[in-house]
Amino acid sequence: MRNLPPIVLNALKIYINIDCEYKNIKVNASIIFIEKIKTNFRNNMNFIFYILKKFYNLLSRIFTKLTILLFSVVVYGVISEYILEHNAPGSGIKTLFDSLWFVMQTITTVGYGDTPVVTFWGRVNAMFLMVIGIGTLGVFAASITSFMVSSAISKRSGEVNYRMKTHVIVCNWNENAHELIKDIERKKEDVVLLANLNSTPDKEINFTKGSCLNIEDLNKVNVNKAKIVIILSEAVNDRFATAIDAENILGVMNVKKANPNAHIIVELLKQESIENAKLAGADEFMVKGTLSVKILSKGALNPGTIEILETIVTGRKGEEIFEEMIPTWYYGKRYEKLAFYLFKNGAIPLAIRNNDNLNINPKVDTVMSGGFVIYISNKKITIKKE
Questions:
Q1: Where are the domains of the chain?
Q2: Following DSSP, what letter does each residue of 221-281 receive, concatenated?
Q3: pLDDT given at position 217
Q4: Phi, psi values for residue 359, rounded to 5°
Q5: Structural domain 16-157, CATH architecture
Q6: How many angstroms separate the CA atoms of 362 and 338, rounded?
Q7: The whole model's pTM is what?
Q8: Rounded to an integer, what distance in angstroms lies between the CA atom of residue 168 and that of residue 159?
Q9: Fold classification of 168-288 (topology level)
Q10: CATH assignment of 319-386, given 3.30.70, 3.40.50, 3.30.365, 3.90.550?
Q11: DSSP type of residue 384
Q12: Coil, strand or helix: which one is 159?
């Protein structure tokens, strides 16, 4: 290459540059072509879903009328064929049940031929039933099919309202949302996801498209009857963490306004947002990443801590953290009585939570006046009066 004349070297460089640019153009063209196919596919699917939904809306408005019409056709056919045929020699219709059997064969186009109609007017009436009955049944069956298809489409696209009670609502979607929902469902709790997604991330998840920033969207998931609302931080991407925290705190305010009794848990991105979350009405909060860092540092300073915490939190060995309301008959009594009761039932008491106060490892002479006791056990314990 070094011995080639400069003019040849320059020509080779120009050829290589042109070839690279041509290949880049081909790659970019291929990417654009693939994206265009994806866009056209999505647009076509959206158009099909739109047509099916319109068809369902049309049929749903006349579904009741179709049901009444179909029932009327069957009743008319049974009575009329019985009157016209039951006395005719050779007729297969001798009872009302024979007439019902004939009518059902006729409108469903089965036609076994085991119930002959022999009179002139009986056959004319049967032809009338064929035209009216088959048409009515066909439209009726189409409406049911359309309802099933539309329901599946609505569930997939999140256009579903839920009327659950004492359920858990998870707002927003991030990398931890799926595992969170599945973990709560394993505890036999009803969970609804409220997020701005184009379609459900998992067909087994109860999903409604919307945001906790919108009161109307919260009403779609029956927030006023919810037991717990968890507001997750969405992926940061090019958005500022402060802006995401501000949206989550606004979501807390909306939930608190709609349901003052709901227990609200919010995930934040900045430590500085905790005070504002408290003022907004959040009952519990967690700064993303902070907890994992603290656990790692504890593990470094106290080997074995991570395994203990992971085992308790995940319930991998059967031991989990539970919370139970302190019964009224323990009010005014010392904490040691309740702690001894829990020990007897195989539990280890950890703390007492009363409103915003959390008393971890209380002194035995602490006088109880309400709130909740938090303990570790392999099952939830119902505190009974001794």
A1: 16-157, 168-288, 319-386
A2: TTGGG-SEEEEPPPP-TTS-HHHHHHHHHHHHHHHHHH-TTSEEEEEES-GGGHHHHHHHT
A3: 92
A4: -105, 100
A5: Orthogonal Bundle (1.10)
A6: 11
A7: 0.60
A8: 19
A9: Rossmann fold (3.40.50)
A10: 3.30.70
A11: -
A12: coil
